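lol ok so funny story. i was supposed to be doing the assay writeup but got distracted and ended up predicting the structure for this chain instead. priorities right. anyway since i did it might as well share w the group, maybe its usefull for someone
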Amino acid sequence: MTPTITTERMSSLIPEASDRPGDDPIFTLNAEAQQRARAGEDVINATLGALMEDDGRLAVMPAVFEAIGSIAPEKASAYAPIAGDDSFLKAVISDTLGSGLLAQRSVAVATAGGTGAVHHGIVNFLEPGQALLTPSYFWGPYQTLATHTRRAVETFEMFDGDGRFNLQAFDQGLRDLVQRQGRALVVLNFPCNNPTGYTLDAGEWRGVSEVLCREGKRAPVTFMLDLAYARYGADGADAWLAELETVNEQCTLLFAWSASKAFAQYGSRVGALIAVTADDAERTRIANALSFSCRGTWSNCNHLGILAITTLLTDEQLKARADAERSRLTALIGERVEVFNREAEKVGLRTPRYEGGFFVAVFKDDAQAAAAAAREEGVFVVPMKGAVRVALCSTPARDIPRLVEVLGKS
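and the output, tada:
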């Protein structure tokens, strides 16, 4: 009997990889907006998280390019150490934590942007099959990173009935996860949360600290603070620092640090993961584990970028210039925040408290329909569950009244 031969080509991909999307939805929307703009349409593109000048050019910091130009070619061309140059790691720790107790308890590794830092947190502090805990409004790639590493994402309702951070929901979510998994990784993205723009105040941070300390006595709890947008927060946005020394007595702390926004260097992919623990032996184990993950993921990071950012963090003159240039960019966003809040109040848009940062959310019962209706009028925003995300970082102040008007109708 002749065997049946199928003419359908068999896939070499493993099943779980065979139906993955080929592009990020935000980049897809951005591409459509750009295409329609090139065709001559009057488009407002509030999708992509990159800071743009009012004339549509990408905002850059000249001091960064002076630092890049100062690096000797033979140094830039050499491999970076697996964990990153020691001078870079010390500078990042100091930039994030100063010189106090948390800094003294810290180790760090260089990562491929803030995304790489989040990746290392997930794979080293959660078992395969376990879930991290984050608010219901979170940066979408957390889900991608978790899925790709065979972990998961669980959420709690981010806002309570008064529009404040929902401490009760956070408490219950963490308690349940600790009970079920025997460990937990909490990921919060503040100040200037992506996608809502929300920043916790001192009272909210105190509540978060109390929950973490209580659960940290029951099981290994790791708390990761994603600081991607921290440099663009309003006064008082660094209230987290005062609370986390207490948390560190019970929990391991992780800080995802990124040069992408802080130095307007999205393409250099320079980031770091800082880990803080009171236990000396544990600190050594964590340093080894994170270095192992670097070798097993990207091996070495962008050495030119690392050396340039180190210079910007340690050379007093260049640092002062970079700080001044960033202050101008923060003021640029601040103007847009002010216009948005004023116009949103006029038409009754429902938004979280918004004081600074790249994004703000506008609550919508049917976000997909609202975003589609806005696109019909040439306004591009990103739909999420229960809201649309508006990237004011890329929206000139002059376009905000029209943007708000369109969202008010959708």
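The mean pLDDT is 94. Residues 22-51+320-409 form a domain with the Aspartate Aminotransferase, domain 1 fold (CATH 3.90.1150.10).
back to the writeup now i swear
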